[in-house]
Amino acid sequence: MKQSLSPGARRRRAGYLFCLPGLAFLALFLAYPLLYNVWTSVHDVDLGQLLGGDERFNGAENYRAVLDDPAFWHSVRLSLVFTLGSLLFQFLIGFALALLFARPFPFNGLLRSLLLVAWLLPPVVSGTLFRWLLDAESGAYNALFEAVGLGTLSHDWLTDPSTSMAGVIFANIWVGVPFNMLLLLVGLHTIDPQLHEAAAIDGASAWQRFRHITLPLMRPVAVTVLLLGLVYTFKVFDIVFVMTGGGPVDATRVLSLYVYEVFFTFFRFGQGAAAGLLLLVVPLLAGVFYVRRLRREEEAPAGGAV
Amino acid sequence: MSYPVDRRGFLRTSGAAAAAAALGLGGALTSCSSDTSGPVTLTWWDYFTLDNFQPGMRRLIRDIEAGVPDVKIERRSFPFAELERQITLGAISGDLPDIAIVDNVAMNTLGGSKLLADLTDRAEEWGQADRYYKGPWDGCQVGGKTLGIPNNSNCLALYCNTAMLKSAGVEPPTTWDELASTAQRLTSGDRYGLALSAIKTEEGVFQFLPFLWQAGGDLDTFATYGATALSFLDDLIAKGSLSEQCVGWTQQDVNTRFLNQRAAMQINGPWQIPTLKKADFDWNVVALPRDKAAATCLGGENWVLMANSKHQDKAWEVLEYTQRPSVLVPYLVAFGELPARKDLADQGSWASDPALRLFLSQLPLARPRQYGAHYAEASQAVAEAEQAVLTGTASPSAAAKTAAAKIDKALGEQ
Predict the structure, then answer these.
(1) Full residue range of the structural domain in which residue A217 is found
(2) pTM for the whole thing?
(3) Using the beta-carbon criterion (under 8 Å), do B384 and A260 form an inter-chain contact?
(4) For a surface tag, which of A192, B272, B284, B350 has the fewest beta carbons within 10 Å of its beta carbon?
(5) A15 falls within a domain
(6) For residue range A163-212, what is the model confidence (pLDDT) as tens digits?
(7) Phi, psi of B355, deg, nearest 5
(8) Is the CB of A260 less than 8 angstroms away from the CB of B245?
């Protein structure tokens, strides 16, 4: 029986065994719910049928109903606005802060840790905080405007449909900046300081060094940060739910809130599952793209991105 | 990092896992004492999580365990917004209670499912239907079946700040015209004449529907009467008597405005009375002003039994027991709630407290929201129409028309 397992095969078997908990986890918490969701999305399921067990297969009916719903497309647009608005500012501000924190100055470490608080707070807490800050009557921002004599700028930020999206994005930028900053800072630290020194000796100005050394070398990190940000932001739920609940009217009903409504307010499980899977498309594409990049980077480790 | 974790799937799986764990545990426990003559344990779900409800609830359960033979109650309470969702999740995982106390509006969704036990025969045999107010009792009838028993009822009325009305020289309004003019007279500085909730949830719709009914319409005539009701509210905002921010206010927020004397009148329910009694100013309550009709919206809770419960007989026995005046009156008094039964009108705190009395006198006018399984969609259409008008993004007639189309689609689908 000894010859039946070569050392290589035994190692492989041990490898599979070590994988087992991970695989079991994936199967139980990822594959099963996802497949169940796919199953639900092609059946006519509502509250009554769940108990009776007489769900009827209805093919692409749920998908058609979702795609025909103007509210769905409205939330797709809102999700795009929310994601692009959040990412743009999170990234720019995060990058600027990373450049700032990359150089030593007093209290650098302390300030950096304090900034992280924004990212560590549960979204429910930061959402509640911003709901109060942006409140029309007792909000801090309006009080601030009034105190500095800019009372005309005070506004019902979250109850006015034309500004509520901006208010929610504003809060989300605050939440996302530290995450962007931290990853970009790590990226900045990986740039060999000798490159900057050599360029400085050659007479390159600070702007030239930033433009021709920092920016190109930061590209892989930047793409990673943006892709991760895209995944995080597109499936946002809690902060919007807490701040506006999707309102006023439907001004901030992003895709995840739409799905939630179809599921838990209307109890149309089939349609909700279909919409949920459609919600996955964008993060999934971003995820695939991210993993492929990661693999490419591993294959060409050093300096490949210049 | 990019795991597309699906919320519902996750809930389902974890729910199933929890249920499996509970079943395993339950199995282990029952195998220790498989004696069938032992007490029956009934599981019971409600949403009374606030501290001030606990003594009354504990007392009720003690009463039941003492008064109904061989029964033990195992209670779990959920946050208000979670209970209905928890029951639907339970429908998937099979983890459901025997008894639940649900919001009366949940009869729309739950009534359309096969989750609730049919109590028609038991209720008929019991024969106490005529002791209840019509609205609450009707609200428990779905598709010709009795699916619940009213636990307690409430409705909306108009609270007035007595001193403010007096110093403005106005009487509490009784009609829409009077409401508009009184609210305007009472508006000054940062004080609004009227506060109400127009939030984008059922709470806002609960407050809006009386206006629709008072205008003489209902959900099936929303295009016409919805527009009337919406433009009445729109006018209040245009004149500054009502704050545009009411689109973000819960009824709790509304009450806070009234308590801070930043609103001279408010539309609210009797559950605010305990808080208002601590106010350092005088207030009084009157019926909601009428237009073509007088109407208010029915709130409160119903008892329901679950169809898959193995102990329906015992659960019904418990339910019947809770409706005995000697049990029900102290329980309702402890909760500060009003009875859904006419025959209790002269007992309890509501017999003497003028504010509670006023609310009780409105119960015969209170209409249940009884629109069928897809009411939630109709309700959302109403909430969005109201928000669109009050935030100035749509005219009353346009918003009412858009909403009417959605309402007809939702309610026509039964």
Answers:
(1) 70-299
(2) 0.84
(3) no
(4) A192
(5) no
(6) 999 999 999 999 999 999 999 999 999 998 899 899 999 988 989 999 99
(7) -65, -50
(8) no
How do residues A71-126 score in pLDDT, each as one tens digit?
999 999 999 999 999 999 999 999 999 999 988 888 888 988 888 888 889 989 99
The C-alpha atoms of residue A41 and residue A64 are separated, in whole angstroms, by 11
All residues of chain B having their beta carbon less than 8 Å from the beta carbon of residue A46 are 113, 373
Across all residues in chain B, what is the average pLDDT?
Answer: 89
CATH 3.40.190.10 fits B37-153+299-366, yes or no: yes
Contact criterion met (CB < 8 Å) for A50 and B88: yes
Distance CA B305, CA B118 (A): 8
From B306's Cα to the closest Cα of chain A, the distance in A is 12
Q: Tokens 């073509």 appear where?
A: B292
Q: Is the pLDDT of residue B106 over 70?
A: yes
Query: Which residue does chain B place closest to A37, by CA atoms?
Result: B9
Q: Which architecture, in CATH terms, is B157-287+371-411?
A: 3-Layer(aba) Sandwich (3.40)
Minimum Cα–Cα distance from B373: chain A residue: A266
Q: Is the Cα dihedral B181, B185, B190, B196 positive or negative?
A: negative
Would you call the peptide bond into A7 cis, given omega within 30 degrees of 0 as the criterion? no
CATH number of A289's domain: 1.10.3720.10
**Which among A34, A231, A266 is the nearest to B6, CB-wise?**
A34
pLDDT tens-digit readout, A203-249: 889 899 999 999 999 988 999 899 999 998 998 999 999 999 887 98
